[in-house]
């Protein structure tokens, strides 16, 4: 038995008349704000008046995000439902129209002269919006005129957003014909994923081949989606005069290029962790020093399956043992039916936690299959929900959502809490070996592999901005970066060249993936602080969560004594992981 969310606390259904009422109200409020035109950028508003502008912008955003996220969540739970698709498309169009009415305000906040900005930033009565002003002004060098911004905003409906919607809807409907032990089955993507970790090597290989073959068979529409994303981003770089392909991500993440570059250089230098781990796993599986590509996720030791209630209790116990309040917040997400964990054929693939506004509970979307990895995903997404609930206590919507690089803080920290709990339960060497392998594989996927994704994505953007890339070219580039990361430790199947086409992050958000690497290494730093300081660290941790998007990442790190500008900070995470790897290698040698 799994869980299905109840979204009636947002709206009563896709035909709820309150949806239109909320959007009509938002549009009216957007029109009313026009009386403040040219007064923000000129500094003619006093603190009380500017506060009113911000509060009205927030009220509008609350209304539009409530409606927009509801449309998306219905679409995510059933991507082929025509009513849901219609509502989602309608929401995107309507919200774009409202956003266009407000572009002038965001431009004035971003483009105000330094002396005007300094006056507002020094005014204590505007304290709640100081960070928002600073973040908005990061975009100042790259903004266009109001009419041009409106055109770009409208273009997104038939540009990047449209290609993202097509990719999601198209791939979610895939059906995979596969034969397992003489029985032919038709499986959805959500039903295929658990089989990547099936204990039977032959099943894993067949699943890998069939999975990637399906994307290869659909190479024309998929390649078209990717090429249009490359082109769209290339146009934005040219129009906005971004100095570098990834600038948009650094601004979005409220961090500096030099910090991200430092992190990625350190990760690249530590690719030996990836290679040494898989060589050790190959030995354990009796494959010498080179593991088969379909065995990357092969389970170690006995196959473990968890019932939904068992997984729920395990994760809640882990959170409650860490901190009672955090455990109660996690429990509330179950009690209020905010989790959809069913596997359904037309359900959007992947897992996410959707946090709409501080006044609306976060909801979790995942497909629970009973594997240890699925239990870890549950802990991860609950962490996001806990983060959102803490941020919602102190932040208004303009400061609510943390940048992506620290948005993974509570989620990855939650996985560490779960691992600590499991270590108490699992006592024998085989169980410990399995758990350490899970930790290392999670780190490799979250840090090294995600950074490898970024190297591939960056090269595709730089080439694809100038010309169309064929599926073969993208596959060859993929193989190049995969080879650098995995070295001679893995013998990949030919079909795995198509792996790039299965990753929705490339379509969804430009250079999203380095946020995972940043987030996990950031959390490893926080977790080591927790191990050093014990319970006294927890209030500091809660303050980081409560900050939401109201502080720059470098300042959040500094608040607990971490310096993310220093390469040694990033290397410390790998030092911790390499100690785990050493323990894993010792256990492997005892087993063989």
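Q: What amino acid sequence fits the structure above?
A:
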């Amino acid at each position: 038995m799994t869980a299905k969310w109840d979204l009636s606390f947002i709206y009563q259904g896709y035909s709820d008349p309150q949806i239109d009422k909320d959007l009509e109200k938002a549009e009216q409020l957007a029109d009313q704000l026009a009386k403040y035109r040219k007064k923000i950028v000129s500094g003619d508003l006093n603190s009380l008046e500017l506060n009113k502008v911000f509060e009205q912008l927030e009220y509008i955003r609350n209304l539009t995000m409530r409606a927009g996220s509801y449309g998306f969540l219905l679409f995510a739970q059933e991507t082929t439902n025509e009513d849901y698709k219609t509502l989602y498309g309608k929401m995107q169009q309507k919200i774009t129209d409202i956003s266009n009415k407000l572009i002038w305000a965001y431009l004035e906040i971003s483009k105000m002269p330094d002396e005007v900005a300094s006056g507002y930033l020094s005014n204590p009565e505007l304290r709640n919006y100081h960070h928002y002003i600073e973040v908005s002004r990061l975009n100042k060098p790259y903004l266009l005129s109001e009419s041009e911004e409106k055109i770009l905003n409208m273009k997104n409906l038939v540009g990047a957003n449209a290609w993202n919607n097509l990719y999601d809807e198209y791939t979610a409907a895939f059906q995979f014909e596969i034969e397992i032990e003489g029985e032919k089955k038709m499986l959805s993507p959500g039903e295929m994923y658990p089989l990547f970790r099936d204990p039977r090597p032959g099943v894993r290989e067949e699943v890998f081949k069939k999975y990637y073959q399906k994307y290869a068979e659909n190479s024309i529409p998929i390649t078209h989606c990717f090429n249009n994303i490359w082109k769209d981003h290339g146009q934005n770089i040219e129009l906005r005069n971004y100095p570098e392909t990834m600038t948009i991500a650094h601004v979005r993440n409220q961090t500096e290029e030099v910090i991200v570059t430092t992190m990625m250089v350190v990760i690249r230098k530590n690719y030996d962790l990836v290679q040494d781990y898989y060589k050790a796993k190959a030995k354990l599986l009796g494959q010498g020093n080179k593991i088969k590509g379909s065995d990357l996720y092969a389970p170690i030791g006995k196959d473990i399956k968890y019932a939904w209630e068992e997984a729920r209790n395990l994760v809640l116990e882990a959170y409650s043992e860490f901190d009672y309040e955090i455990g109660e917040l996690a429990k509330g997400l179950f009690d209020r039916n905010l989790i959809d964990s069913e596997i359904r054929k037309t359900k959007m693939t992947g897992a996410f936690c959707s946090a709409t506004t501080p006044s609306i509970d976060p909801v979790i979307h995942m497909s629970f299959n009973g594997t240890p990895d699925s239990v870890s995903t549950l802990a991860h997404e609950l962490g996001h929900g806990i983060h959102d609930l803490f941020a919602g206590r102190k932040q208004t919507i303009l400061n609510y959502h943390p940048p992506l690089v620290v948005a993974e803080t509570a989620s990855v920290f939650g996985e560490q809490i779960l691992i600590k709990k499991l270590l108490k339960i699992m006592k024998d060497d085989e169980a410990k070996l399995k758990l350490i392998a899970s930790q290392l594989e999670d780190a490799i996927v979250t840090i090294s592999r995600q950074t490898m994704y970024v190297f591939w994505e960056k090269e595709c953007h730089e080439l694809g901005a100038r010309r169309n890339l064929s599926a073969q070219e993208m596959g060859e580039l993929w193989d190049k970066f995969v080879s650098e990361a995995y070295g001679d430790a893995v013998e990949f199947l030919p079909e795995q060249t198509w792996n790039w086409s299965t990753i929705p992050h490339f379509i969804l958000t430009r250079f999203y993936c380095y946020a995972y690497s940043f987030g996990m290494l950031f959390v490893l730093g926080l977790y080591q602080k927790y191990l050093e300081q014990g319970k006294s660290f927890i209030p500091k941790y809660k303050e980081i969560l409560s900050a939401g998007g109201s502080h720059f990442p470098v300042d959040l790190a500094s608040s607990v004594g971490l310096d993310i500008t220093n390469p040694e900070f990033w290397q410390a995470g790998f030092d911790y992981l390499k100690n785990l790897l050493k323990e894993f290698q010792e256990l492997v040698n005892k087993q063989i």
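Q: And what stands out in the fold?
A: The domain at 170-303+431-592 is CATH 1.10.1370.20 (Neurolysin; domain 3).
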